[in-house]
Amino acid sequence: MRSIFLIILILTFFSVITSNAVAADSDSSLEMLKQQIEQLQQQVLALEKAQQAQEAEKAKQASMKQVTKVEEAEPSTMPEKPLNNTLSVYATMRPTLGYFDEDAETFWDVRDALSRAGIKATNEFMPGWTAELHGEWGIDISNNGDFGTARKAYVAVGGPYGRVAVGKQRPPQYLLIAEYVDIFNHANSPFSYDAEGIFFVNNMVTYRLQTGGFSWLAASQFDGESGSNGADLVNLGLGYDQSGFHGAVTYLMQDSIEGNFTTGEDEVWAVSLAQDFNNGLYLAAAYQDKSYQRDAISKDRSGHTLDVSTAYRISEQFRVKLGYFDFDDGRGALLSQRYDGYNTTLEWQPDDSLRFHLEYLAKDYDYLNDFDSWSIGFRYDFSKDWQF
């Protein structure tokens, strides 16, 4: 800008010289020329000061705008709305048609392989802390499609120090032991654990903490209408999961209740191992050693459950599953329901939400009539999730 003013000054200077060339020899003309040059210099200085003031004002306004943008980009410490809300609605329908040979009688029957529907909502009410509600109810296709048998009904709060839940829910015994061998499309799977194992427990308080690959689980049941005045059940467990491998050990102490009377306690130690290989092969085994501690009237006894499950993916849509099981309730010949057996299943899954299966199951009882069945089954899964 200053160079422009100098050019104007020079041009004006030459113009004045030209216009006054005739009178250049006179003193008055020279004096007038000096005054004009001084006036032009003062105008140039005034213009430069005004230009500098404008540039300083623009820089100040730009700096203020930048500060405002930075302040707007920084989130508040406590947002007005929840950080993360999720809602899930789901259902699975699992009818089966089977041919049964049971108690020396053969027959056809439509049954249900644990159809159910549920709703689950979670809310991250502050960073790292979530609240959860979960309700799930069975749908019995084999009996009029009845709806309403509760499977899960609890509220949980989780954070950096673990998760606590209260209500009807899965116990550690199932989550760490039975779940890994429960791979078959059957209401009575796992076939040995099912005889006396626990799947859902009401009136229960659970705690879970995950550190690295380890899962620490603890649960107690408090049912004031039955059992002892304190905890009716105590279930502790430790699991480890890493790169497709699972290993766990659990301890369970539960009141034995017959009618309204407590007849003793059941003490169970259990272990489970499972490995999911990259080539499509899956192997799992679960074992429970059970001690039936009874009062003076009943006799103490001991038994066990053993379930071995394996699956192999033949192709992207087909899998074959095999299982072996052995159950011993420790009773004498007249009362014992001891059995072992096996099952095999061919599963076709043409879509992520749809699968079909063909299964053969055989139970060989030591003192009762044997059991075997052929069944075909359908399974359709539906789920819808929302985030807001």
From TrEMBL:
Where is the signal peptide, in residue numbers?
1-23
- Quick one: where is this thing mainly located? membrane
Identify the residues that the record assigns to the Porin domain, covering every copy: 86-386
- SUPFAM superfamilies this protein is in? Porins
**Per the record's keyword annotation, is Transport included, yes or no?**
yes
Coiled-coil stretches, from where to where?
A: 23-73
Keyword Ion transport tagged: yes
Subcellular localization: Cell outer membrane
Tell me how this protein sits in the membrane. Multi-pass membrane protein
Instruction: Recite the UniProt keywords alphabetically.
Output: Cell outer membrane, Coiled coil, Ion transport, Membrane, Porin, Signal, Transmembrane, Transmembrane beta strand, Transport
- Tell me the subunit arrangement: Homotrimer.
- Please report the name of this protein according to its UniProt entry: Porin
Which organism's genome codes for this protein? Shewanella psychropiezotolerans
